[in-house]
Design brief:
- The chain is built from 10 helices and 6 strands; from the N terminus they run βαααααβαβααβαββα.
- Strand 2, helix 6 and strand 3 form a beta-alpha-beta unit.
- A 6-stranded parallel beta sheet has the order 3-2-1-4-5-6.
- The longest helix is centred in the first third of the chain and has 19 residues.
- By secondary structure, it is of the alpha/beta class.
- It starts with a strand and ends in a 6-residue tail after the last helix.
Length: 233
């Protein structure tokens, strides 16, 4: 029986790529950097993902990720990288302006309120995530919000989850489920914490790392089947 769900935000409850694209294109105009094409956005996304994976492996710090990804991106595109730090500061604010729900995630979370405990667990910055959760309305539906920047440790580190559990109180770990799109952050984090894992994989990506996956779903509505509420299928 699942009594507690830990939700990832970016690319799970919310469409991160849509928000990323809108924010970067807006800031290219604001910083007078010329046209930012969809192909440029795809190149940035690849760089960004690699930086976050290095963070999850403990190879980079959060500040190194946030500024370094833009510095590398600008250098790759032949743009002066001196603007990277200022660009990132504005990006954190703009990232929360575009809210696109994945698979009716708002209604799913709302329907589960009171039936299970629900918490946000995210490596996103406090500035960006608090704005997203406020504007999306998801924040007020949660029983708690845990952001790595505030906790002082990133997923998948077990300390992230230990500090979270210290706050929410005793739980039966076999009744806790983490739902997320990242194998290296969410699923490995769940493994480290000794809780059940649910890999949200709508694009049917191949598994590229050795982690234990208890459930794999392509649509968030399938969460009803996992926790047995009978609201799906």
């Amino acid at each position: 029986m699942i009594t507690t769900i830990l939700w990832d935000v970016d690319a799970t409850l919310l469409d991160f790529l849509a928000a990323e694209k809108a924010a970067i294109k807006k800031l290219f105009q604001e910083f007078d950097l010329g046209e930012c094409t969809d192909e440029m956005i795809r190149r940035y996304s690849k760089i960004n993902r690699s930086y976050w994976e290095q963070l999850e492996c403990g190879e980079l710090t959060k500040p190194e990720v946030l500024v370094g990804r833009f510095r590398e991106f600008f250098e790759t595109e032949g743009i002066c990288s001196d603007v990277a730090e200022a660009f990132n500061e504005r990006y954190q604010l703009c990232l929360g302006d575009t809210i696109v729900f994945r698979d009716d995630s708002y209604e799913i979370v709302k329907s589960l309120r009171g039936k299970v405990k629900q918490y946000v667990v995210s490596n996103g910055t406090v500035v960006a995530q608090e704005k997203k959760l406020r504007l999306s309305g998801l924040g007020e539906l949660m029983d708690g919000i845990f952001l790595s920047e505030a906790l002082g440790v990133e997923k998948p580190n077990v300390e992230f989850f230990e500090r979270m559990f210290e706050t929410i109180g005793p739980v039966e770990k076999d009744q806790v489920l983490i739902v997320g799109d990242s194998l290296t952050s969410d699923i490995r984090g769940g493994n480290n914490a000794g809780i059940q894992t649910c890999w949200y994989n709508p694009d049917h990506k191949e598994r590229y790392t050795d982690v234990k996956i208890d459930y794999e779903i392509a649509d968030l509505h399938e969460i009803y089947d996992i926790i047995g509420t009978g609201e799906w299928g």
